[in-house]
Design goal:
10 strands, Rossmann fold, single chain, four-stranded parallel sheet
Length: 602
C-alpha cells in the first residue's frame, strides 16, 4: 500500500480537502468499506459533529472518527480480546502506589516525595512517556551510569518502572499497551477496501508510528501534516518537530518496503483577509516586513493585568454577538495557559451569563462525594477529630436534621469548639451545662437543644462506626472496597446525587448535572479498580486508605460540551478548533509563547 503525506502550512486547505474527499466518497457509496479518520482525542467530537452536519450527507454508518487509542480498543473488542483488565489513569495511580510501597526501601530520591500531592500523577506521566518511546528499565539503568547528575533519579525510576511492568505482566493493560496488542492483532485483521486518514497531529510517538506503519501495510493511508512545502527537507524553526516526525515516519516505511508520496498544499485559502494570511506567513519571523494596509483583522490590546485582559475579551464577545450576528459557537477564547486564565475566564463569563465550555479536565476534589470520602478516610485513620468530621458533615450528604440542614451542622460545630470536644468524647452523652446543679435547672428550650445535640452526635456515630468496624474486620482488598460501598449505600449518596442532578437539569445547569453523574460513576469505577488490582491480597487498613486517597486525587471530569451554541475556552496546547470566526488570544507577551504544561502536540 501507499502512504500519501499531505503537507502544507496552516490554512492551506489540507483538512478541508480531506473532509470534502471523504464526503464525496460517502455520497458515492454510503455502504462501502469503513473509512477511518484518526484525530487527537480533543478533536474527535468537533470533527464528528462537522461530518454529521454536512448538507446532503444525512448521516452514515461507514465513517468512523476516532482517536488512535479508541481505534485500538474497537479492533481489540471486535477480535474478542478482553479489555476488562485495562488500567485507566485511576487504576494506574493505585497500582503505582502499591509498587512504591513494595520498593520503598530501595528508593533514594523518590522516598522523600512519595507522599506529596501529585507525585503519582507525575510518575504515571513518566511511565507513559517511557512506554510511548519503547524504553525498557535496562536502558534507564545504562543511562544512569552515563549521567551522574541524574543518576539517582534514573535508578529510582528504573526500579519503579520494572516493578510496574512485573506487576502488570499477564494481568492488566496500561493505556499505552493497547497499541502493543493491536500490533499483534493487525496481521490477522482484514482491512480490504478500508482507508485511513490521519489529521491534527504534529508529532507521533514510536508506538503510534509503529501502528501507522502496520496499518499502511494493510490499507491506503493519508497523513496530513503542517509543514511548509517549500522547506520540507531543510530545517525550519517553526516546523522542526513535525519535520523530524516526517523523516522518522519515512524511514520506518522504507524499512518495510512501503512507498510514500508527498502532496503539497499551497496558499492559504482559509485566511480570506490578507492580514490573517500575512500573520500566518510571517509568524516567528523577526525580520518580516511590517503589514502596511489600513484594514486589519488582527487587533492588539494591552492590559494592566490578566483580569482586565479577560474582561475586555468578554466585552468583545458580547459586542460580536449583539452587533455583528455571531453565534457563541463561532468564538474561541484561547489562552497561553488555562492554569493562569481558566478561573478568570470562568468568572467573567459567568458574570455576564454567557454560555461557555472550559476545555480542561477538572479534578473532582471539590465535589461533595469526593470530599466526603477523603474526610471519611481521615476519620478512619485519626478518629473523630473535629476537622474531618465537619468536613464530612458540610457536604450535606450526611443529614443531621432534614429541615435544618446547615443550621444543625453549625450548632453542632459551635458546641464542639466551645467545649473542646475530643475524638474520644463522641461516644459519651453530652450535657449543655458544665456543672450538675446547672444541668438540673435547664429550661424546656435548653433541654430541647441538649436533646438535639445528642441526636446529632448519635447520627454521626451511627454513620461512621459501622464503617470503622468493617474496615477493622477486613483483611483483603475486596473486603475493604465492599465496606466503602456499604457506607455509601447507608448514607444514601446515589439518591442524593440523583436529586441534585434532576435539580440542575430543571434549572438548565447541564454541566453541573453531568458532573453529578460522572462523580458517582467515577467512585464506583475507583472501587472496581482497587478490587481488580489485588482482590485477595492481604493488606493493612492504613495502606488501603492511602491507596483510596491516591485514587480520589486522580479522579477527573471527562466532559463533552453539553450544548452546541457556546463559547470555547481552551489553550494553545490542547485546543483543536474547527470553523471558528473569531478568536481571542490571551497571554501573548512574547513572539514565542510556551506553555507551562509539556505536550507532544505543542
Amino acid at each position: 500500500m501507499t502512504v500519501t503525506f499531505h503537507v502544507g502550512r496552516s490554512g492551506s486547505g489540507k483538512s478541508e480537502w480531506m473532509t470534502k474527499h471523504v464526503i464525496e466518497e460517502l455520497k458515492r457509496d454510503p455502504s462501502g468499506p469503513t473509512i477511518y479518520m484518526l484525530v487527537p482525542d480533543q478533536m474527535s467530537f468537533e470533527m464528528e459533529r462537522k461530518m454529521a452536519m454536512t448538507d446532503g450527507l444525512n448521516g452514515s454508518t461507514r465513517i468512523q472518527v476516532l482517536s488512535m487509542r479508541r481505534l485500538a480498543f474497537l479492533m481489540m473488542r471486535d477480535r474478542g480480546v478482553s479489555t476488562e483488565q485495562f488500567l485507566d489513569q485511576t487504576g494506574t495511580h493505585l497500582l503505582l502506589r502499591r509498587v512504591v510501597e513494595m520498593n520503598e526501601e530501595r528508593l533514594t530520591l523518590f522516598r522523600r516525595t512519595m507522599n506529596q500531592f501529585g507525585f503519582y500523577e507525575e510518575l504515571n506521566a513518566l511511565i507513559t512517556l517511557l512506554k510511548r518511546g519503547l524504553v525498557d528499565p535496562e536502558q534507564l539503568l545504562r543511562l544512569s551510569e552515563q549521567d551522574q547528575h541524574r543518576s539517582l533519579k534514573l535508578q529510582d525510576l528504573s526500579i519503579l518502572y520494572e516493578g510496574f511492568l512485573t506487576m502488570t505482566e499477564g494481568k492488566s493493560l496500561h493505556a499505552e499497551d493497547y497499541f502493543n496488542v493491536l500490533l499483534q492483532l493487525l496481521p490477522d485483521i482484514d482491512l480490504t477496501g478500508t482507508r485511513f486518514y490521519v489529521d491534527g497531529f504534529n508529532e507521533f510517538s514510536e508506538q503510534e508510528l509503529a501502528v501507522l506503519v502496520a496499518l499502511a501495510e494493510k490499507a491506503p493511508l493519508d497523513v496530513l501534516l503542517t509543514i511548509d512545502p517549500d522547506s520540507l527537507y531543510r530545517p525550519h524553526p517553526s516546523f522542526g518537530p513535525t519535520q523530524r516526525t516526517l523523516m522518522r515516519f519515512k524511514e520506518l516505511l522504507s524499512e518495510r518496503g512501503i512507498s510514500s508520496t508527498d502532496t503539497p498544499h499551497m496558499g492559504a485559502p482559509r485566511f480570506q483577509h490578507p492580514s490573517l494570511a500575512y500573520l500566518e506567513a510571517t509568524f516567528g519571523q523577526v525580520t518580516a516586513a511590517p503589514y502596511t494596509r489600513p484594514d486589519s483583522h488582527v487587533v492588539l490590546h494591552a492590559a494592566v493585568d490578566r483580569s482586565v485582559e479577560v474582561e475586555a475579551a468578554v466585552r468583545e464577545v458580547v459586542r460580536l454577538v449583539r452587533e455583528e450576528g455571531f453565534r457563541y459557537r463561532d468564538i474561541a477564547f484561547v489562552s497561553r495557559s488555562l492554569e493562569a486564565y481558566g478561573d478568570l475566564a470562568t468568572q467573567a463569563l459567568q458574570k455576564m451569563n454567557l454560555p461557555f465550555f472550559l476545555d480542561e479536565r477538572q479534578p473532582m476534589l471539590d465535589h461533595p462525594v469526593v470530599e466526603l470520602l477523603k474526610a471519611t478516610i481521615e476519620v478512619a485513620l485519626r478518629g473523630y477529630r473535629e476537622e474531618p468530621v465537619f468536613r464530612a458533615l458540610k457536604t450535606e450528604l450526611i443529614l443531621l436534621d432534614a429541615e435544618h440542614r446547615r443550621t444543625s451542622v453549625d450548632r453542632l460545630e459551635a458546641f464542639v469548639i466551645e467545649r473542646g470536644i475530643k475524638h474520644y468524647h463522641w461516644h459519651d452523652a453530652w450535657y449543655l451545662k458544665r456543672r450538675a446543679e446547672e444541668e438540673a435547672r435547664l429550661t424546656g428550650e435548653e433541654l430541647d437543644a441538649e436533646t438535639a445535640l445528642n441526636r446529632y452526635r448519635q447520627t454521626v456515630v451511627d454513620t461512621f462506626d459501622p464503617l470503622l468496624d468493617d474496615l477493622k474486620a477486613a483483611k483483603t482488598m475486596q473486603a475493604y472496597t465492599h465496606a466503602i460501598y456499604a457506607f455509601l449505600e447507608r448514607v444514601g449518596v446515589a439518591s442524593c446525587l440523583a436529586h441534585w442532578r434532576d435539580e440542575a437539569l430543571e434549572e438548565a445547569r447541564l454541566l453541573e448535572a453531568r458532573e453529578h453523574t460522572q462523580v458517582w460513576d467515577a467512585v464506583l469505577h475507583l472501587l472496581e479498580q482497587l478490587e481488580a488490582a489485588a482482590p485477595d491480597e492481604t493488606l493493612s487498613t492504613e495502606l488501603f486508605l492511602q491507596m483510596m486517597d491516591t485514587g480520589l486525587d486522580s479522579l477527573r471530569y471527562a466532559l463533552v460540551p453539553p450544548s452546541l451554541d457556546q463559547l470555547t475556552v481552551t489553550d494553545y496546547v490542547r485546543g483543536r478548533l474547527l470553523d471558528k470566526k473569531s478568536s481571542s488570544c490571551s497571554g501573548r507577551t512574547k513572539i514565542k509563547s510556551r506553555s507551562s504544561r509539556p505536550s507532544r502536540n505543542y
